[in-house]
Automatic annotation (TrEMBL), chain A:
This is Electron transfer flavoprotein beta subunit (EtfB). Signal peptide: none annotated. Residues 23-215 form the Electron transfer flavoprotein alpha/beta-subunit N-terminal domain. It comes from Pyrobaculum ferrireducens. SMART domains: ETF. GO terms for molecular function: electron transfer activity. PANTHER family: ELECTRON TRANSFER FLAVOPROTEIN BETA-SUBUNIT, PROTEIN FIXA. It comes from the Archaea. Pfam families: ETF (PF01012). CDD domains: ETF_beta.
TrEMBL record, chain B:
GO terms for biological process: fatty acid beta-oxidation using acyl-CoA dehydrogenase. The keyword Electron transport applies. One of its GO terms (molecular function) is electron transfer activity. This is Electron transfer flavoprotein alpha subunit (EtfA).
Length: 264, 331
């Protein structure tokens, strides 16, 4: 089994976000990037399959060089090796252009892959697009929200959960295929520090020189969507009316106020 | 201006598709009355008529017995073929779990871009661009995204963001049955079963309720939720929880509100024993009215409430429940 696991070197929510005023895209340079939290579920899922059926798990990320620590931490978890697709030309990519680079990297560098595993979504832009778009670029079937799987010959039998319908489904999918892993469904294993420290030599960085993609079809220039504006979200200011005192009295005041607002 | 109309089983359409038809109608008017269309996979004429009653001028039913059961790749391929044929300028998809699964594959097949989880949609009549507005970075920023060079312009929208339009049975429209061939199936459904989730009460999910009463660590025990359930029932609402209450095992994770839980837009949100951490507040910024019940007047939730009730919930809630019962008996 050759399993490719995707990871985004994401901007941790705790850090101050900076937006490029010209392009409206996120500035990822100079920001300490960490592997998207939900990708740890994907890695755990992939490692479990490898431990059961044998083979190799390869992490793949499109990111600036500051994305290397994210890949190192996944190697620390037990991923065998990693590929970083990194080029100035890839900067500012939307999901279409991101999936394009990821799919082409796989076609060229891991053509004999059996399975691609992604996180459900990222913590910083949460589109959940990349899995489906990669499947479309590669022309392979895909299933989202998977939490368990079994390999049967050339098919993978996946179990998934649709939270909004409260429904479990089992699908049989021909490989190669793409699956996204239900967030929070796995217990990611610990990072081995010694493995992580020696991870650098297991990371291969490739640029567009090796990939040879048309610069018009990658990065900001290749992105069909354009961020036309970014503004802090304004929410209705709150009234901040403090109600204090004997509880019966407070309850009466509150009910009166909610009646006035037309809620009761 | 077309909309994907997701089925809710074999009998009806999910509301989100109808909500999007309402929005599409509004945008179509701004673009000089362009046509509003809908696509249903393996649906019935009755469903198509419902779509017309809710604003569609034209509904395509994809008729292929092989598509009775849902599988992502095959559905996405079939929908993309219909979109390709009718060439709408704009194609909208409801961001249910299945909708999110289909949306980006369809966009990619049509070599166009897509914006996820828009909370507002506008059109620029000059360029005929769809302005796709979505919250990002946990709701702190609003991005406006355009797809200037490609058509159709695609966006997904979560259920409940736009109101469902009035049903108007006098509306008429065209129903077209399209036989769509799909490539050999590579995904097969083996089984489907409803999960019986142990919930704390037989109450609606948090994302669809008008009133949400939520509890946090300050409740001190699972017992505390009983009062919340009583209050929620009196208000025809439901119960929610903070991450800490979920971690304590007092409520299922499906009821968690916040950044890693649900984003809700109720008319009334009552936070009981919740401190109001930023990750929690992210899920309730669009609540119309917020009431907080907390003994600590400086808890962040109190700064972010319309009514900050200072006190112990064990005293406040019984008094509030009594007051509401009295009001109910009066009416
Ligand atoms: C504020 C903002 C809003 C945006 N909105 C949109 C939008 O609506 N539409 C759009 O097309 N683009 C959008 N983008 C661009 C988008 O964030 C990037 O293209 C991003 O690289 C991938 O999207 P995502 O983070 O949403 O990934 P998701 O699709 O949510 O990620 C799913 C999984 O795919 C994998 N993955 C994601 N990115 C990478 C990567 N770079 N390398 C390897 N694996 C990866 C991970 O396993 C991840 O768990 C937006 C960007 C910003 C800053
Ligand atoms: C990446 C990330 C994601 C997160 N996502 C979420 C999320 O989606 N949702 C979420 O909720 N949290 C989330 N959190 C956690 C969040 O930061 C807080 O830890 C959490 O919301 C606190 O829960 P709480 O308010 O119930 O508990 P606490 O912060 O402990 O607050 C308890 C409150 O109860 C009050 N209280 C005590 N006694 C009483 C009484 N008798 N009557 C009334 N009030 C009383 C106290 O004054 C206090 O204000 C996330 C954190 C991280 C890092």
């Amino acid at each position: 089994m050759k399993i490719v696991v995707f990871t985004k070197a994401a901007v941790p929510l705790s850090s101050a976000i900076r937006i490029d005023p010209k392009t409206g895209t996120l500035i990822r340079e100079g920001v300490p990037l960490t592997a998207n939290v939900w990708d740890r579920d994907a890695v755990e899922f992939a490692l479990k399959l490898r431990d059961r059926y044998g083979g190799e798990v390869i992490a793949l990320s499109m990111a600036p060089p500051s994305g290397i620590p994210a890949l190192e931490s996944l190697i620390g978890m037990g991923v065998d090796r990693a590929i970083l697709a990194s080029d100035r030309a890839f900067a500012g990519a939307d999901t279409w252009a991101t999936a394009h680079v990821l799919a082409k990297t796989i076609e060229k560098f891991i053509p004999d892959y059996d399975l691609i595993v992604t996180g459900e979504e990222t913590i910083d832009s949460t589109t959940a697009h990349i899995g489906a778009q990669t499947a479309s670029w590669l022309g392979v079937p895909y299933v989202y929200y998977v939490y368990d799987a079994e390999i049967k010959g050339r098919t993978i039998v996946v179990r998934r959960f649709l939270e909004d319908e409260g429904v479990d489904e089992v699908y049989e999918v021909e490989m190669p295929a793409v699956v996204s892993v239900l967030k929070g469904s796995q217990v990611p294993r610990e990072i081995s520090l010694s493995r992580k420290l020696a991870a650098r030599e297991r990371i291969q960085t490739i640029s567009n020189k090796e990939l040879g993609l048309d610069p018009e079809c990658v990065g900001l220039r290749g992105s069909p969507t354009v961020v036309a504006g970014m503004a802090p979200a304004v929410y209705p200011p709150r009234k901040k009316i403090v109600l204090q005192g004997e509880s019966g009295e407070v309850a009466r005041k509150l009910v009166e106020a909610l009646k006035q607002e037309g809620i009761l | 201006m077309w909309v994907y109309l997701e089925r809710d089983g074999d009998k009806r359409l999910k509301d989100v598709g109808l909500e999007l038809l309402g929005k599409a109608r509004e945008l179509a008017q701004k673009l000089g009355n362009s046509e509003v269309g809908g696509v249903i996979v393996a649906g019935s004429e009755e469903m198509a008529r419902e779509a017309i009653y809710h604003g569609a001028d034209k509904v395509v039913i994809i008729d292929n017995p092989d598509l009775k059961t849902y599988t992502p790749m095959e559905y996405a391929e079939a929908i993309a073929q219909v979109v390709q044929k009718y060439k709408p300028e704009i194609f909208l998809i409801g961001a249910t779990k299945r909708g999110r699964e289909l949306a980006a594959y369809i966009a990619n097949t049509l070599t166009t871009g897509i914006t996820a989880d828009c909370t507002a949609l506008e059109v620029d009549p000059k360029t005929r661009d769809l302005l796709q507005i979505r919250p990002t970075f946990g709701g702190t920023q609003l991005a406006t995204i355009r797809t200037p060079q490609r058509r159709p312009q695609m966006a997904s929208v979560r259920p409940g963001v736009f109101p469902k339009p009035q049903r108007d049975t006098s509306r008429t429209g065209e129903i077209i049955v399209e036989r769509v061939e799909i490539p050999t199936r590579r995904t097969r459904l083996v089984s489907i079963e409803k999960r019986i989730e142990r919930d704390i009460a037989d109450l609606p999910p948090v994302e669809s309720a008008d009133v949400v009463v939520a509890g946090g660590r300050g409740l001190g025990s699972a017992e505390g939720f009983k009062l919340l359930i009583d209050l929620a029932k009196l208000l025809n609402g439901t119960v929610g929880a903070s991450l800490m209450a979920v971690r304590a095992g007092w409520a299922p994770h499906t009821r968690q509100i916040g950044q890693t839980g649900k984003t809700i837009r109720p008319r009334l949100y009552i936070a009981v024993g919740i401190s109001g951490a930023i990750q929690h507040l992210m899920g309730i910024t669009e609540a119309k009215t917020i009431v907080a019940i907390n003994p600590d007047p400086h808890a962040p939730i109190m700064e972010n409430a319309d009514y900050a009730v200072v006190g112990d919930y064990k005293q406040i809630l019984p008094a509030l429940i009594e007051e509401l019962r009295r009001l109910k008996n009066q009416r």
